[in-house]
Amino acid sequence: MADTFTLARRLKAGETVYTGWCGLPYPLVAEIIGREGFPAVTLDGQHGLWDTAAIVAAVAAIRQGGAAPVVRVPVGDFANISRALDFGAEGIIAPMINTVADARALAAFAKFPPLGERSWGPHRAMMLGGFTDQQVYLAEANSLTVTLAMVETRTALSNLDAIVATPGVDGLFLGPSDLSIALSNGGSLDPFSKDVDAEIDRIIAAANKAGKIPGAYCHNAERAAALAKRGMRFIAVSSDMGFLRAGAAAQMKVLKGG
User: Fold this and answer.
1) What is the C-alpha separation between 206 and 211, in angstroms, rounded?
2) Would you say the pTM of this structure is higher than 0.70?
3) Before 114, cis peptide (omega within 30)?
């Protein structure tokens, strides 16, 4: 049922949605992050340690925890976009979308006709979403799932308007670390650099002009809050490893009398 897919509904209502970010391949960790109040939890299938079985389990666990599951697929792994949606993911983040051809490939695997060419097989997604009628799911799926194209290179910046205007692409998602490497010609890894910061408003403006969603990865909550004020609306905050380290460090500080 449509009301069980919360991510697209929140974004269409104009909400700013914060997502947890999970690289550790443990469904329980992803569920806990959702239960702690994040309305979405992203499974990082690009740089995280996830395998297919763990993603299947985590998607269900995140939904059980009351959040919307999102999957970032590996670079160029468009086939797994369809699989993640079949597993019940509500959103897809696709890295290194540099050209209109890349954007069209993203849409092709994420959306059913007429927007794309997604193959039929959403049995787990229908089960988790409470759909009993295949025709109803087919009619609603394109509007219930969110596709975000990552902006991480100079080439992507040069094609920004065309990428976000591609039918079936629902928004842009800034990858600040890779963009900092690209903008410095490999000389620096600095997601907070002035060069990266200078592109943020441009990314937001391009998405808004196309009626799409501007999003970004942020390394901490302070940065996430700041980008929300600037107009980002789908924002990843830190990571499960970051949360674990921060919690452990805070406990050790108490134990050491700090």
Assistant:
1) 9
2) yes
3) yes
